[in-house]
């Protein structure tokens, strides 16, 4: 984030202890000052005050539902001051410096099993968080993101994400005095963030480019909605900020390098990489005959591949004209289920193990993702994002009607696993500030828990092939969690570290059907803050 006067930038670093720290440095100087020490939290937003004297930021537990808004002097030396709780996004400060915008998502109602939420655009006192005023509220699956005051304070621009049948993203112009709003642009590709240029020069937008499928920077004309791409390279960009004069733009270039490693299950330190080209993406699974099925990110598109366990004989199974990923193999090895965006949004598809006969399996409204097989091998269970629907859906592997899993409770984040013998379910509950995430383990045919586990899984939650324990990546308890996988016996309730992928992050882990080998998806993330000269100025 660049300061309004264009002289300083503030940024977050990954520290050696696995935490995050907040730094500031002058643009003209390589010396940086740490203004907030390393903490085991994630930073969601960073903002300078209009006079460049303070830095606002949101921190939250890893994969937490809400964060906390703080303010700290730009030169550090003081404990950050808490401004507001239960914050999901921060906007900017009003022109007079007295108000700051924030967005708060409501918690799902605890007594419902359907996807219902709301988001509020709030203005609050920039110094102490008092006098909260709700300016705009959206209900259902539409949410507000990244609000920004216009230079004169009369307008607020914000990103709106809608999920009605399909996902759409738009930039909205909201009149503070009248409450009227106008849609400036609407697109199916994700809009991540916006920055307001002074006078009538429109907005800078970080959004997914429909042609390259990369996050790029654009100039958005207001009010016509014309978007002009201002970056044109092979990088992906995250976030966007601009100084008061509109001369310097700061964003983050991000590069991920992800590979699959395979090892002996009796020696978890034995793993070695097997994928060179193409690179992997996020998911890996085993066929009964010992091959691996995985997704690959290549030329900014995700596709599903199959290969021998040593990486030989790789074969691409899905076309590269749309994203296809998150593959899972049926117990008999006949089918692969996966998510595909070939219809414009995530849906569950099925294909034969050799890639043939690719069909839409779950014809359901909204977005469906993260498919997996139930123990019977005949039912596909998936995450379901659709207003009024259950959080999880299911469909026969042969196709047919989609139904909700009404026996599973509502949760803000959801992980679900059925034991290989079909006897037990493990699933998350809770996930809001009042009810932290836990995992319930219970028999399939009973609501009485076998165990309640004080763990907070993220990325994956799976049973070991022998059904004796669960393994998962922990989201909130400990240091360097992105690099570790834990294992827990439900009857003992004490987690232990199963493996580490240091210095890389671990994204997925799967054991072979015969329990002799394992495959893990490991990721290196490289990021650099970059400054660009603005090309968005009107003449």
Q: Outline, from the CA principal axes? A: globular
- Unreliable residue runs: 108-116, 535-539
Structural class given helices, strands, pairing? mainly beta
Determine the fraction of residues in helical runs and give it as a percent range.
under 10%
Strand content: over 45%
Mean pLDDT: 86
How big is the Rg?
24 Å
What profile does the largest beta sheet have? 5 strands, antiparallel
- Figure out the total of helices: 0
What is the straight-line distance between the termini? 26 Å
Count of distinct strands: 44
Task: Produce a short descriptive summary.
The chain is mostly beta strands.
What would you say this structure looks like, in words?
It is a single chain. The chain is mainly β and 539 residues long. Helix content is 0%, strand content 54%. The protein is built from no helices and 44 strands. Strands 20, 21, 22, 43 and 44 form a five-stranded antiparallel β-sheet that branches. Strands 4-5-6-7 form a four-stranded antiparallel β-sheet, with no helix packed on it. The protein has a four-stranded antiparallel β-sheet with strand order 8-9-10-11, with no helix packed on it. A hairpin with a 6-residue loop joins strand 32 and strand 33 (392-396). The model is unreliable at 108-116 and 535-539 (pLDDT under 50).
């Amino acid at each position: 984030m660049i300061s309004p006067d264009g002289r300083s930038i503030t940024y977050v670093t990954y520290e050696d202890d696995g935490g995050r720290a907040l730094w500031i440095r002058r643009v003209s100087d390589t010396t940086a000052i740490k203004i907030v020490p390393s903490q085991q939290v994630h930073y969601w937003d960073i903002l300078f005050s209009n006079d460049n004297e303070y830095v606002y930021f949101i921190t939250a537990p890893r994969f937490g539902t809400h964060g906390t808004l703080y303010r700290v002097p730009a030169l550090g030396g003081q404990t950050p001051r808490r401004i507001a709780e239960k914050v999901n996004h921060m906007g900017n400060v009003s022109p007079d410096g007295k108000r700051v915008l924030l967005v708060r998502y409501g918690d799902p109602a605890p007594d419902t099993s359907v996807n219902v939420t709301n988001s509020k655009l709030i203005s609050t006192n920039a110094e102490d968080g008092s006098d909260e005023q709700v300016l705009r509220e959206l209900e259902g699956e539409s949410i507000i993101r990244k609000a920004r005051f216009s230079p004169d304070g009369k307008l607020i621009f914000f990103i709106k994400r809608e999920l009605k049948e399909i996902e759409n993203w738009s930039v909205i112009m909201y009149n503070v005095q009248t409450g009227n709003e106008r849609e400036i642009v609407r697109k199916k590709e994700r809009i991540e963030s916006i920055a307001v240029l002074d006078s009538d020069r429109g907005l800078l937008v970080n959004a997914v480019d429909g042609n390259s499928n990369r996050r790029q920077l654009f100039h958005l004309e207001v009010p016509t909605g014309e978007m002009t791409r201002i970056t044109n390279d092979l990088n992906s960009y995250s976030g966007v900020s601009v100084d008061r004069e509109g001369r310097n733009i700061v964003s983050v270039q991000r590069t991920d390098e992800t590979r699959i490693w395979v090892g002996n299950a009796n020696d978890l330190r034995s793993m070695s990489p097997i994928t060179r080209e193409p690179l992997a993406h996020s998911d890996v699974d085993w066929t009964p005959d010992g091959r691996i099925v995985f997704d690959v990110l290549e030329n900014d598109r995700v596709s599903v591949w199959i290969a021998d366990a040593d990486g030989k004989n790789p074969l691409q199974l899905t076309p590269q004209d749309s994203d296809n990923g998150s593959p899972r193999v049926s117990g008999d090895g006949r089918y692969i289920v996966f998510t595909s965006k070939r219809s414009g949004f995530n849906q569950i598809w099925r294909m034969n193990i050799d890639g043939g006969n690719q069909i839409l399996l779950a014809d359901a409204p909204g977005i469906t993702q993260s498919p997996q097989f139930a123990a019977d091998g005949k039912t596909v269970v998936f995450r379901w994002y659709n207003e009024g629907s259950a959080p999880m859906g299911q469909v026969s592997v042969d196709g047919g009607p989609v139904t909700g899993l009404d026996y599973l409770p509502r949760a803000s984040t959801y992980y679900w696993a059925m034991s290989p013998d079909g006897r037990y379910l493990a699933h998350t509950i809770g996930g809001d500030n009042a009810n932290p995430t836990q995992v319930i383990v219970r028999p399939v045919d009973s609501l009485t828990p076998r165990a309640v586990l004080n763990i907070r899984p993220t990325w994956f939650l799976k049973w070991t092939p022998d059904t004796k324990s669960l393994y998962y990546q922990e989201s909130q308890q400990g240091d360097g969690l992105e690099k570790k996988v834990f294992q827990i016996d439900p009857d003992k309730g004490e987690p232990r570290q199963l493996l580490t992928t240091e210095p890389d992050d671990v994204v997925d882990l799967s054991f072979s059907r015969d329990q002799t080998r394992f495959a893990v998806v490991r990721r290196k993330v490289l990021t650099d803050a970059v400054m660009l000269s603005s090309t968005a100025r009107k003449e």
